[in-house]
Amino acid sequence: MTAVIEDPIVTSAKPRSQWLLFRRRFVRHIAAMIGLGTLTLLVVVCFAADLWVFYDPKLTSILEAGEGPSMAHWFGTDDNGRDYLTRIAYAGQLSLRIGFAVAFISTFVGASLGSIAGWFGGWVDELITRVVDLFLIVPAIVFLAVIGRKISEAEAFLWWDLGDEFLFYTIDRDTPIIFALAMFGWMQVARVTRAQVLSLKEKEFVEAARAAGASSTRIIVRHILPNCVGVLMVNLTLSIAGAIVAESTLSFLGLGVQEPQTSWGKMIADAKGFIGTEKVFMLYFPGLMLLLVVLSVNFIGDGLRDAFDPRSKQE
Amino acid sequence: MLAFFIRRTLYSIPVLLVGSFLVFAMVSATFDPTDDLRGPRGGNVDAAEIERVIQAERERTGTDRPLVEQYASWIGGAVRLDFGDSWETRDTVGSRLWRAFGNTLQLIGWGILISAVLSVAIGVYSAVRQYTISDYLLTGLSYIGIAMPPFWFALLASQFMIFTLPNLLGTDKFLFISGLHSPGKSGIFNLDYLQHLVLPVATLTVQIIASWSRFQRASMLEVLSSDYVRTARAKGVPRRQVLYRHALRNALIPLVTVMAIDIGLLFGGLIITEQIFSIPGMGRLFIGSLLDGDNPVVAAYVLLTAVFIVIFNLIADFMYSVLDPRIRLS
Known about the structure:
The complex is a heterodimer. Chain A is an all-alpha fold. Chain A has helices at residues 8-12, 18-27, 30-47, 49-52, 84-120, 122-136, 140-151, 175-183, 187-200, 204-211, 216-252, 264-271, 281-308, and strands at 165-166, 169-170. Chain A has one domain (18-308): MetI-like (MetI-like fold, Orthogonal Bundle). In chain A, 65% of the residues lie in helices and 1% in strands. In chain A, a hairpin with a 2-residue loop joins strand 1 (165-166) and strand 2. Chain B starts with a helix and ends in a 7-residue tail after the last helix. The model of chain B has no long low-confidence stretch (mean pLDDT 87).
């Protein structure tokens, strides 16, 4: 008599893809989930501002100028009597849009250049590495300040003459800032991607693909880049934070976003004169928003890193 | 090893040269000294007269020559520390930068010293007390410190230390937010200097302390779980001695490299700090000149920053190989 012994482990095991494992680890990362929730909430609240605000963001009212938070104005009013919560929401649209756009552009540029450098090696690698070194010899904020004085004069900046539309993109007043920030945000991504590609291209599956006759482009796009996704996503999230802070710093120095537009950094700059007065609450709210966004993004980045590479988990 | 450093140093020279040309071109492209002479004006001013004034201004600032020629004479002077004349004042760029350098050096010096001491102390403490309440508290603070924009921190700290706290306690202000000395005072060994220094140095270092201490904590934890630390403990070396003699000394190596590289961040942070606290240092001079359109000062500041960063990167490489002989340079 033979008994069939069911192995509970073998029979219950379902095939698990890497993606599923990643998702599971990410969802279990509490801090990352809180970060994701907060960021989503802020993004929705800011971009849906048209649907919920009670006040016109430009409507001034001298009688209500500089009032502290109340039931009518939750975040108070600014020195021109404009509802501060409304201002925060519209400023957030700009801050967030700049942050996301810069992160995507710089990650795209960095990943492309990094993978080209790592894959082809030789003089191409040499050239790209030198260019990265060139961009890293001065702190980005110094470069950005120099470019910023041109941006703050707005109108006549580089591609401005191309008309209102360039390719598929509508050019706004903040387009130059996005490109300037992206110009100094891609180097780290390029370095990381290059290192990743250098190690990946020695792997067996790449050799197999090459033996099967795949072209360089195909190998990079189909085999190398998918294996870099983890690193790239972590870098993408972190560069969102970097870009938002860089923009706010520039605007704080008066070299970024200009009137009539406003961003959280510019709102802090506008409120700095109220230190020591009762209007100092104007300083708190935009900074708190910046802090919340950057914290959430950093937590998401941590979660992604731990989920993609469980070994790297910081103890 | 010597060959490696000679090669690295030689390699930095072309990077600096190309970099300085780009910097010079960028600074020239973003501001034209004759711009405000061209604007619309009232009254009937002779067009030829305007043209003559513009030409004179171009000659005075040297912008009538081709860019490459301007660059060649600028960089030729710069290697002899002669950065030409300021456009806005009747001073040389060198003397303006030199006057500002003293204040900047004080900020950077105290900044590095305080961030190094505090971050090592915090890092070691939270590594040794891993997963206790104080570790969690310090970790939480460091997350906030990294995420907080330094300029916002500066304004919050000013509000709190200058107004909120003295009001609460009913005392006089015990810190100041303008300059490094009260009028008529000088020297660095007095209370007045300390009262002026606290907030700027805190602004400059808050982000750096937060990130260095995280780094130090991680590297300390790694060392503490290594075999030689366990061996030392097992053969009965006192705990304190294991901590400082065996663990800390090795755990400092990665931090030292990061420190040398992050000094670059300090140079960036200076701009904000000096601007907010009205300290007449190089960062404030840079922003002021930028807004005034004083190109020679701007270009000189950017070039000096680049040189400093290249030097500190070299030091980082050097430290790394000196402190850890296992690392072979090639």
